[in-house]
Structures are given as C-alpha cells and as structure tokens.
Amino acid sequence: MREAAERRPALLVALGGINDVLLFVCKWLAIALVAAIALIVIASVIFRYGLDNSLAWSEDAAKFLMVWLAFIGAPLGFSHGAHVAIELLPQGASPAVRRILRSLVHAVVLMLMAILTWQSWLFAWNGRTQVALTIGDVSMFWIFLAMPIGAAIMAAVALELLLATLVGLPEPRIAEEETISTQGL
Questions:
Q1: What is the longest distance spanned by two Cα atoms in the chain?
Q2: Which one has a higher pLDDT value, 55 or 108?
Q3: How many CB atoms sit inside 10 A of residue 43's CB?
Q4: In terms of DSSP bridges, do strands 131-132 and 138-139 run parallel, antiparallel, or are they unpaired?
C-alpha cells in the first residue's frame, strides 16, 4: 500500500485529498438527509392518521430532500464502485484491455458529468424565480442546486479514477465485497 502511495503523482494526491473531504461531507449529509426524510414521513403519518390533521408541507419536503439525497449519494456510490454495472468483458481479458476500457468509461463519465454540471446549473439558475410555496416560500433554486453540486463532485471522482487508471494505479475506493458495509461509521 505504501509503494502505491509513493508512486502517486502530486496532482493525484491533491485531487484524492479534495475528494476525500467532499465524499466525507457527502456521507454525513446523506445520513442527515435520510434521518430528516424518515422523521418527516413518520411525523406525516402520525399527524394524518393519529391526529387527523395532515401536514401540508411534508410530502414536498420529503420529495425535495430525496432529490438532494440522490445527487449527494451518487458520488459516494460511484467512488465505491457500487453503481449498477454490466461486465462486458470476460474475466480473462488482459490487464491492458481492462485498463483501456476503465479509462474510457471514466472519461465518458467525466465528460457527461461536466455537461450535466453546466446544464443543471443553468436549470437551477432559471428556476430561481419559481417558488415552492408548500415548504415556506423557498426558491426552487435551492432544490435544483443539488444537481450541479452532485454532478460536479461525481466529475471530480471520475477525474481521480481516470488519472489513477492512466497512471496504472489500482482504483482507490472500489469495494471488495458484494455490498458496501457501514463499518467505520
């Protein structure tokens, strides 16, 4: 492990450090979002069926938090190799072929996330005049902002994975098990 760290170029070390901080924030933000959604849904059920007085804002608030959760959680899944994938190559493919294809996949993800970051920023900015009245007169900009933030973080992760693959390093955060554990939380 130490040998791999010594071979890492300074740019990759810096980008890895930035991504570690961003993903740490994403992890705890995702945990907080799940907790907030759960509390809102539980409160909504209690108020609707227990107190016969529904909360008008609960459904929209939970939906908007779910949007944030999806865009904040996506970079976490991508960094751990947890997104749905289809193995197109047989296990017997040469390491050089696998490296080329991994580089190509990371480059395509990087390009798509860069486009999504820009286009979703324009979308969020255009939505700044729209208002979500049910959750307290909040500009839709704050809800749509999840898209460019999540896409930008995912682009940063894709860039790190692409550079690591081009240099010939193993991908740093790929889960070695079928499932990602919560060990270390």
A1: 64
A2: 108
A3: 13
A4: antiparallel
The arithmetic mean of pLDDT across residues 38-48, rounded, is: 89
What CA–CA distances, in Å, run from 22 to 25, 122, 124, 144, 165? Answer: 5, 23, 21, 19, 21
Contact between residue 163 and residue 110 where contact means Cβ atoms under 8 Å apart: no
pLDDT score of 170? 67
Q: How many CB atoms lie within 10 A of CB 47?
A: 14
- Residue 14: Cβ within 10 Å count: 12
**What is the per-residue pLDDT across 135-171, written as a single tens digit (0 to 9) for each?**
778 888 999 999 999 999 999 999 988 888 888 776 6
CA dihedral 126, 128, 130, 134 (to 10 degrees): 140
Q: 77 CB contacts (<8 Å, ≥6 apart)?
A: 83
* Alpha carbons 15 and 161: distance in angstroms, whole number: 10
The model's confidence at residue 175, banded by pLDDT at 50, 70 and 90, is very low
